[in-house]
UniProtKB/TrEMBL annotation:
It holds the Pfam family Metallophos. Gene3D superfamilies: 3.60.21.10. It comes from Asanoa iriomotensis. This is Metallophosphoesterase. Residues 135-368 form the Calcineurin-like phosphoesterase domain. The lineage of its organism: Bacteria, Bacillati, Actinomycetota, Actinomycetes, Micromonosporales.
């Protein structure tokens, strides 16, 4: 294994470059002009194969500084103990976009090796190119975060890095999709979804069983933090903030352990009274929690106030038409016969903070669909996570947060009677969204994989001003 490089957390004069090999090696980044920057190499001890055997994965991490404005060509090279050398193709990197400069940011989430993910990323490249200023990723990159194949060489050919670096291999309707070399050129700004969290280590033999069994105080995000050590805030990479050009971005850890049964507000009899029966929140974000206090300070900072736009990214969607927008994001209360769910913490404690701080856009994932909402304070809530597998939309139920979904402004899909739909929840149609701050708009595109020769269709423009 020799993965392609990916970029993280650019600074005013540098950027982090990471890649992985299947055997110990020394690594370096080769820049245009002959400069060589050594990498720090280490084994990733949390990754395993399907049988629970530790996988041989070595991370190479180089911080390339001293960069001037514009893009610089680069390659990564790995030298192994037997003298073998592997070198990547040439890509381009750049330092952070200066403040107050317009940017283009891809908004994505919920890849999880789904069938259409390589097609989705391929169409991003065809439509807007790969030299973007960043990728804001709202969680759920893989299925099981400690399974090495989910990140790299998954049997389906759709591992996370495979699709995002142009090495995937999926055929749909006669067309072969490889994804695109996106992360080699555009820095990734990720947040944690429920599929980045592993459960109890000592109770189970298989990785899937471990993933399925988190418990309060017995879960971890070790693999995610090793693969994405930056950007990081005071507490590490679980939540962070960065200024990307004229956009101030906050990434939060807002996701939960949940059971499919609770989406109907019922529980199997054998779970009643079990603290694991309902759901629990991995990281607190309610008022008074460390994350909430930190967020309050960040949204009130000079960097946030001075940016043209303010964007908050987290996984769970409290506004939405998808199956996973219920039950409320809160602590369930066992009543003796079932569970009650009090106020949604996101709507109770975060939404007012977003309103007072002038947040322009909240980006979520989790339900694998596209829908958007505008709240009374002028905050836009967008889920653009239909990259390959949708769990469906439930417009008859409505938004649990009480908002009316916004019908796409350009070319909405329609129902059999010809009525425009305020969502995309289709397992043949994949969606991606791009924030273009120069135009003050988020453009959403859809691509019907049943018609592989047709281009992606612009179907919605969300104005940010």
């Amino acid at each position: 294994m020799h993965s392609e490089p990916y970029l993280l957390d650019p600074s005013p004069d540098g950027v982090h470059v990471l890649w992985h090999t299947g055997a110990p090696a020394t690594g370096a980044v080769l820049l245009g002009g002959g400069r060589r920057v050594a990498a720090t190499s280490s084994a990733l001890v949390t990754l395993h194969d399907d049988d629970g055997v530790r996988a041989t994965v070595h991370r190479h991490w180089s911080y390339v500084d001293g960069l001037g404005a514009g893009r610089t060509p680069y390659r990564v090279v790995s030298t192994f103990a037997n003298g073998a050398v592997q070198e990547s193709p040439e890509y381009s990197l750049a330092p952070a976009v200066p403040p107050h400069t317009p940017v283009r940011l891809l908004l994505s989430s919920d890849h999880q090796m789904w069938r259409m993910t390589p097609a989705n990323i391929a169409m991003v490249a065809e439509t807007v190119g790969v030299e973007l200023d960043g990728v804001l990723f709202a969680g759920d990159m893989v299925g099981v975060p400690d399974r090495a194949g989910d990140w790299f060489d998954h049997p389906t050919g759709r591992g996370f890095f495979a699709s995002m670096t142009g090495r995937a291999d999926t055929v749909i309707a006669g067309r072969r999709y490889r994804g695109a070399p996106l992360l080699q050129h555009a820095p990734l700004f990720p947040v944690i979804g429920n599929h980045e969290v592993m459960g109890r280590r000592r109770r189970h033999h298989t990785l899937q069983e471990r993933f399925n069994d988190p418990a309060p105080g017995a879960w971890d995000t070790a693999s995610y933090e090793a693969l994405f050590p930056v950007p990081a805030g005071p507490g590490g990479p679980r939540w962070w903030s960065r200024t990307v050009g004229d956009v101030f971005v906050v990434g939060l850890f807002v996701t939960r352990a949940w059971r499919d049964a609770v989406t109907t507000f019922t529980e199997p009899v054998e779970r009643l009274g079990d603290p694991m029966g309902g759901q629990f929140l991995f990281e607190r974000v309610d008022a008074g929690s460390p994350q909430h206090a930190w967020l309050t300070g960040e949204l009130g900072s000079a960097a946030a106030r001075g940016a043209r736009f303010r964007v908050v990214v987290f996984h769970h969607a409290s506004h939405g038409l998808g199956a996973h927008a219920v039950p409320p994001y809160t602590d369930p209360v066992f009543t003796g016969a079932g569970y009650e769910y009090p106020d949604d913490i996101v709507l109770r404690d975060l939404a007012p903070l977003f309103a007072s701080a002038g947040v322009d856009l909240v980006v979520n994932g989790h339900s694998h669909l596209w829908n958007r909402f505008l709240d009374p304070a002028g905050v836009n809530w967008l889920e653009s996570s239909n990259v390959g597998n949708s769990y469906g939309a439930f417009p008859h139920r409505g938004d649990p947060g009480g908002l009316t979904p916004v019908v796409p402004t350009v070319a909405p899909l329609t129902d059999p009677a010809g009525n425009p739909l305020p969502y995309v929840a289709d397992n043949d149609v994949t969606v991606f969204s791009v924030l273009d701050s120069a135009a003050a708009v988020v453009r959403s595109y859809r691509f019907d994989t049943r018609h592989p020769t047709q281009p992606a269709v612009l179907f919605d423009e969300l104005p940010l001003e």
